[in-house]
Structure formats: C-alpha cells, structure tokens
Specification:
122 residues; rod-shaped
C-alpha cells in the first residue's frame, strides 16, 4: 500500500495537474493520441454555432418586417389625411354656391347665359 501511494506523487506544477494523461487501450496497450475532451468541446461549440446560425434568418426577417411595418404605417397616415381632405371637398361641393363657383372656374355657363372670353388683359 505504501508503495502504491509513493508511486502516485503530486504533480510539480498546476498545469501538469490539469493535463490528463493519455489513456492506454486495454486490448492493444497503446496510448490514444486523440484528446477526447477537446473533441467533445469542439462538438459542443459546433452545435452551439449551428443553433446560432439557425436563429440568424428569422431575426433578419423580423428586422425587415419591422421596417416594412413602419413604411406601411406612414403610408396609412398619409392616405388618412388625403381621405379627410377629399371628404371635406365633397361636403363643400354639396353646397350649391360652391358648386356654382367651381363650375364657373371650369368655364361653364348656365343654360340661357352667354359666355365671354376676354383675352390679352394687362
């Protein structure tokens, strides 16, 4: 027992303690040159990278949809203002005086009236 304890000595430096020893294969007795702990870390890192890549496209489409939504909102506001302006114009044209004034502006005359056009006024 004492011999087994003396064979297991504490490593000289902390880095030596963190470094695992190569594991000997039971059948062949050879040590493995593959660092499986690093391979496992690499696989986990690649999996996280793949998941992150899967999130990129949806995030980009959400971002572009927000921009498109803002454009549509401004267009709706503009169209609502135009609708209100046109509704005011319709109400104004229902007034007979305003209707006659608009017709005169377009050059129309009432039945029985004679229209005159005066040109070359200073």
């Amino acid at each position: 027992m004492a011999a087994a304890r003396s064979a297991r000595r504490a490593p000289a430096s902390p880095r030596a303690a963190a470094r695992p020893r190569p594991v000997a294969n039971v059948r062949t007795g050879r040590t493995s040159a593959i660092r499986w702990d690093r391979v496992g870390r690499l696989i986990v890192l690649l999996a996280f990278g793949a998941v992150a890549l899967l999130y990129v496209h949806p995030l980009l489409s959400i971002w572009s949809a927000r921009g498109e939504s803002a454009k549509r909102r401004t267009e709706v506001v503009r169209l609502q203002a135009e609708q209100q302006r046109l509704e005011r114009r319709v109400r104004a044209l229902k007034n007979p005086k305003a209707l006659e004034r608009e017709a005169r502006r377009l050059g129309m005359v009432r039945p029985g009236e004679r229209g005159y056009v005066i040109q070359n006024l200073p």
